[in-house]
Amino acid sequence: MNAARLAVPSVAVTTSEGVPATPPSPAADPHIADPHAEHEPAVTQVTLTSIGEREVLVRMADGRTGVIDRADFDEARLGSVSPGDPLAAAVLQREHPDGRVPMSAKWAARTLGWARVMASLENREPLTGVVERSVKGGFVVGLGVRAFLPHSLLGPVEGEASQLVGTEVRVIVKEADRNNDRVVVSRRDVLRREMRAAERSQLAALEPGQRHDGEVVEVLDVGAKVRIGDVVGLVHRSELSWGRVGHPGDVVSVGDAVTVEVLEVLRSKRRVALSIRRTSAHPFDGVSVGETYEAVVQRVLEYGAIAQLDGTEAAGLVHVTELSEMPGQRPDQLVYPGERIRVKVLSVDTDRNRMALSAVQATYL
């Protein structure tokens, strides 16, 4: 294990794409203490030379010996390093009378931590830290400095939120006040950014004609919303079933696993039109024009009746002129819902989902 973790907290600065970024260097980052400013010690890289009972000795770049109080280090981490490993340390004063330079690993960690925090505040890039403990209203997250993660900025959590303690989280700095030692971070913003990035990626890959497995997440009067991966699309009520749909809730329910076909992708508006019915064969595929079938009357209309062919989901219109040869009669005087009749298929229009039937012509076969 690299000894730099003793002086620099286990905080990874990452880009929005999740790629680790180069940690800020004391020489290049404007947020790291200026060695010439009053009360601000300089942070520098040193090399561990020995570990004593009370002191840790290091070698500075100019060859001088630095001394760090052993209490500055966590004992578990101290036991995992050896002479020759690099450390980050802050210079507390020029040197002792004995020529050694007093240094601090904790101060270096804090200075570097504030550098990361201020950089995250400016460039909106996420930081990774460990949830140290639960406090009133949220959690404390270690970023080299202690940051407050309010419950309102936590975002969705699987299970109990208390299970986050001891785990790593990615956060964005929302507020930072070094004078008052106050840092507020948001996990929710990072999750939203990641979800939008995943959505954009999947939208770019979606094309009409593709089929995907999904889950119904909402049922509306106009149809049903279905989640496929990171994208939510709409199945219009007309695309739920080949048959007649009263209310979408009669066909699907929230939580249903469904297979959908992509009809249209509007990437600029983040809209996806889907179909459930087109993942199954059209009911008219097995119907032959000119053949006769047993059928059941489903509905009676002013101008005829809708009848469904036995053993199929194919339904068509029997116009009033094809219900009876007797003129002047209303459809409800000739048939009723649930009545079984014999019909002949006159025409099939799959594109318009229409089929013309005749009871009159089936009678004279």
The main sheet comes to: 6 strands, antiparallel
Radius of gyration: 36 Å
CATH architecture of the largest domain: Beta Barrel
Beta percentage is 35-45%
Count of β-strands: 21
Give the N-terminus to C-terminus distance in angstroms: 90 Å
Principal-axis shape: rod-shaped
Order of helices and strands: HEEEEHEEHEEEEEHEEEEEEEEHEEH
Structural class: mainly beta
Going by CATH, what is the homologous superfamily of the largest domain? Nucleic acid-binding proteins
Proportion of residues in helical segments: 10-25%
Number of domains: 4
Q: What is the averaged pLDDT score?
A: 83
- Unreliable stretches (pLDDT < 50, length at least 5) are 1-38
CATH class of the largest domain: Mainly Beta
Question: How many distinct helices?
Answer: 6
At the fold tier of CATH, the topology name of the largest domain is OB fold (Dihydrolipoamide Acetyltransferase, E2P)
Description of the molecule:
- With 365 residues, the chain is mostly beta strands.
- It is rod-shaped, with a radius of gyration of 36 Å.
- The strands form 4 sheets. Strands 1, 7, 8, 9, 10 and 11 form a 6-stranded antiparallel sheet that branches.
- The chain contains 6 helices and 21 strands.
- The protein has 4 domains: 4-109, OB fold (Dihydrolipoamide Acetyltransferase, E2P) (Beta Barrel), CATH 2.40.50; 134-191, no CATH class; 206-279, Nucleic acid-binding proteins (OB fold (Dihydrolipoamide Acetyltransferase, E2P)), CATH 2.40.50; 284-363, Nucleic acid-binding proteins (OB fold (Dihydrolipoamide Acetyltransferase, E2P), Beta Barrel).
- Helix content is 15%, strand content 38%.
- Residues 1-38 have low confidence and may be disordered.
